[in-house]
Amino acid sequence: MAQTFETLMKYPAADEALVKKALETAIGIVRSDLPVFTDHFPSSNSFQGFYEATENVEWTTGFWTGVLWLAYEHTDEDAFRQAATVQVDSFFHRIADKIDVNHHDMGFLFSLSCVAAYKLTGNEKAKEAALMAADHLAGRYREKGKFLQAWGSVGEASEYRLIIDCLLNLPLLYWASEVTGDKKYACMAENHIKTAVNCILREDDSTYHTYFIDMETGEPSYGVTHQGNRNDSAWARGQAWGIYGIALSYHYLRDDSYIRLFERVTDFFLCHLPEDLIPYWDFDFDTGSAEPRDSSAAAIAVCGMLEMAKYLDRERAEKYTGAAKRILYALIRTCGNADPKQSNGLLLHGTYARDSAENTCKNRGVDECNTWGDYFYMEALTRSIADWEMYW
Ligand code: GLY
Questions:
Q1: Is 165 among the catalytic positions?
Q2: Rounded CA gap, 139 and 388, in Å?
Q3: Ligand 1 atom at minimal distance to the Cα of residue 163
Q4: β-bridge pairing 364-368 and 41-42
Q5: Is 182 exposed, middle or buried (0-12, 13-18, 19+ CB in 10 A)?
Q6: Distances from the Cα of 242 to the Cα of 25, 57, 77, 206, angstroms
Q7: Which of 197, 292, 384, 385 is buried most deeply by CB count within 10 Å?
Q8: Of ligand 1's atoms, which has the minimum distance to the CA of residue 353?
Q9: What is the mean pLDDT of residues 162-185?
């Protein structure tokens, strides 16, 4: 169903009472998860509703630590702070010993765990870990093409590409420049987002998931999907990474050319939402499809809209805040887990990966919770009722 801002405004919006109740429910579940997920982390996605305990591996463990910091901010309970601090130590060892870090996802891992710890508690070890992670990410910067290589060994021909998700890794670099005074990190981040938006944004305002860069010339070469339905489709989470990623770079750079880019990617997302406002995993699918949803894409987009609304003129700020609060209402009502016996996660109906003829994925975490969905849900709830100082 094609949505317009007029149709969107007819949906109910999340009000403060609903959000506070949703936060209370979510924090209750987080509290009951603490005994298992302090020395261990939840798996990237749940299995029939339940996360398993894992070591600090993959790109997803920082989300849980971020959830703990948010729970700590809301409650002031020492148990959350202590558990998050135990995990910060784990992140220090992960980056010092280079465990499963041969990829670009240092921002996802270290902004929400260690930068958050430093901002909230002044933890110097956390700062050191986050700066090591920023250096590691900077090592993936490719001068030829001016971008951060997402996957594979640095400079590997078959992986000479960027992916839209990386926009969420850039705040770690902006932050590193702020705390060290060394502009090189922010410069790489700014070059990366310029390269990225130049090639991933299509004329119809949808986005490619990944884009190869010519190793010889540094020019954008061609786009392919990794997790979307087709090379030319709009993977819902990718579009959401675009929304929030552009808003975060705007926060640091204040370059007004990003306002129009934000509107383009966001309006595409909003106008393609199905009737119940929870996107399918790819915008190829619409109301009535039997394909699974990706609630995490909606939560990410809400955070992006609420961040960007801070910098927009009143009319546009109201438009995006209004849309965000309507999607948030739908998320709370249809995806918010209220029953710890049904799941130990917070946000139901996410999709990590879905196989298709044109992508290389196997089904994974389909119609399950995922840790980033939980994190962005908590962040979206927080942002919708408070002037929150972000961890990014
Ligand atoms: N950043 C990987 C994903 O969104 O699945």
A1: yes
A2: 31
A3: 1
A4: unpaired
A5: middle
A6: 29, 25, 34, 10
A7: 384
A8: 5
A9: 98
